[in-house]
Write a structure and sequence with these properties.
Layout lengths: L2 E5 L6 E6 L6 H17 L1 H10 L1 H20 L3 H10 L4 H10 L3 E4 L3 E9 L2 E5 L7 H12 L3 E5 L5 H14 L5 E3 L4 H9 L4 E5 L2 H11 L5 E5 L4 E5 L5 H13 L9 E7 H16 L18 H16 L3 E4 L12 E4 L6 H4 L6 E7 L2 H9 L6 E5 L4 H7 L6 E4 L18 E2 L4 H6 L2 E9 L1
Parallel strand pairs: 5-6, 5-8, 6-7, 8-9, 10-11, 10-15, 11-14, 13-14, 15-16
Antiparallel strand pairs: 1-2, 3-4, 4-18, 9-17, 12-13
Helix pairs in contact: 2-5, 3-4, 3-7, 10-11
Length: 450
């Protein structure tokens, strides 16, 4: 049997392995999930939620072990990894929200009485990335299952062990074949997209998202695509500069910049640029870089390919006139040290292609209009943030940005209950929120005369 091995990006040691699912077997796997679906659906929203809630205690008990596995398999600092692992057990609110969102709705118009049902689609194929190797699966698998679908789940080949560990917990409480894991890389992903599944829930890169959309067109499969970004941050004249610099450092460097809503482009008003750059450079230079298992702020990149991609972008930006204010391309192993680049211009690769690495790119602007125009000059539209005075003026600037999620003096992600949504080429459809949960269902309208 062919296996997929995982290696620790810190020292190259082997972490473990999983059996690869031959792509030719995927149609049979999907057929098994289809056979299991009616009985799972028949349990009803409350019955399914009751079963899924049993995972809460198991995830809490295994949070430390899951965190350690994440750090070993993809490098993120242990504290961040354990935080991610703990979030897996916090599903009560989401299950309540799903149960309420998917209740049948009754609509009367004086002549007719209709009931709108939110039925499961059938079998959902879930394909996930490696950067949040346990929470990304949870964001798609849990709502798909709660809605009454069965799921065939393909974790990233970079973090197959984490994906398997997530599914193992669910499979301790689920009936057989309600959730089936398949392992492999793009061949297995393609086979799942081409199979008889009713929907593909995908989180990953824009390029693969486009491929999936094209392939899914053949049978008009439902798709939800959560894709990459090139998030801007605006720093306005009356911003609290210390706070803005602290945020920029956190959101450019956490998880070694391997975050879809990472701050990848910073537009700072000329009048505050010196102060902002100095504060950001100080924070970046003080960051502890090392093995994620030790007390560090930044671990290694997930693999050498990702490291090389980031280093090549830095080199090319410097060749094009960017200045290195902190960090740079000196490195060892899979590490990229937190880097602050000044004088970044729009024509550079690093200003338009997703970096997914620990680099903060600063561009000085002379007006708010220029900042807004440059921030919106992208095909992406995931998150954005604006730092300025508290109040209506800064919120008005934020409303001019074309991203899906915009934070004012804070991160982009919204309150619990709001969609996680990418605009433009950062996504198609979305999840989280009552409307997001409905994307895992088919609306059916049953009508009688009044
Ligand atoms: P990726 O697109 O390379 O791979 C994602 C998954 O797709 C993997 O499981 C991979 O095996 C599979 N795959 C590859 N080719 C395929 C194909 N042709 N058909 C079907 N499946 C295929 O992405 P990645 O490198 O794993 O993750 C990083 C990307 O994910 C970044 O662009 C990041 O911004 C994005 N991301 C987005 C969000 C969000 O919420 N919008 C969250 C996390 C990550």
């Amino acid at each position: 049997m062919e296996t997929l091995k995982s290696y620790n990006p810190f020292d190259g040691s082997e972490v473990g392995e999983v059996p690869i699912t031959p792509a030719s077997q995927i149609p049979d796997v999907v057929a098994r999930a289809r056979v299991a679906q009616p009985a799972w659906d028949a349990l009803g929203l409350a019955g399914r939620a009751e079963i899924l809630r049993k995972t809460t205690a198991i995830f809490a008990e295994r949070a430390q072990a899951h965190g350690e596995l994440m750090t070993a398999e993809m490098g993120k600092p242990l504290a961040e990894a354990v935080g991610e692992a703990k979030s897996l057990g916090m599903i009560d609110h989401e299950l309540d929200e799903i149960a309420s969102a998917l209740q049948p709705e009754i609509v009367e118009d004086g002549r007719l009485r209709s009931t709108v049902y939110h039925d499961p689609l059938g079998v959902v194929g879930a394909i996930t990335p490696w950067n949040f190797p346990m929470s990304m699966p949870a964001w798609m698998v849990l709502p798909a299952l709660a809605a009454g679908n069965t799921v065939v789940f393909k974790p990233s080949e970079e973090t197959a062990l984490c994906g398997q560990a997530y599914a193992d917990v669910l499979n301790e409480v689920l009936p057989p074949d309600v959730l089936i894991v398949v392992h492999g890389a793009d061949d297995q992903g393609k086979a799942l997209v081409q199979s008889d599944v009713d929907m593909i829930a995908f989180t990953g890169s824009r390029e693969v998202g486009k491929h999936i959309m094209r392939e899914a067109a053949g049978t008009l499969k439902r798709v939800v695509l959560e894709l990459g970004g090139k998030d801007p941050m605006l720093v306005l004249e009356h911003a609290d500069i210390a706070k803005a610099a602290k945020f920029a450092a956190w959101n450019s460097f956490r998880n070694a910049g391997q975050v879809c809503v990472s701050t990848e482009r910073i537009f700072v008003l000329d009048s505050v640029a010196d102060e902002f750059e100095a504060a950001l450079t100080d924070i970046a230079s003080a960051m502890r870089v090392g093995n994620g298992a030790d007390e560090v702020d930044i671990g290694p990149m997930v693999n050498a390919r990702q490291r090389d991609h980031v280093l090549a972008q830095i080199d090319s930006a410097v060749a094009g006139g960017a200045s290195v204010l902190a960090g740079g391309t000196g490195h060892h192993g899979n590490f990229v040290i937190p880097t602050v680049l000044g004088n970044v211009s729009e024509d550079m690769d690093i200003a338009c292609v997703e970096t997914f690495g620990p680099v903060a790119c600063v561009t000085r602007v002379s007006s708010v209009d220029e900042a807004v125009a440059k921030a919106n000059h992208t095909h992406f539209g995931l998150g954005a943030v604006v730092f300025g005075e508290d109040g209506a003026d800064t919120a008005a600037v934020a409303r001019r940005l074309t991203a899906g999620m915009i934070g004012v003096n804070r991160a982009a992600g919204g309150a619990v209950g709001t969609p996680w949504v990418g605009a433009r080429q950062s996504g198609l459809g979305f999840h989280k929120s009552p409307d997001g949960h409905k994307q895992f269902t088919q609306a059916r309208v049953l009508t009688t005369a009044l």
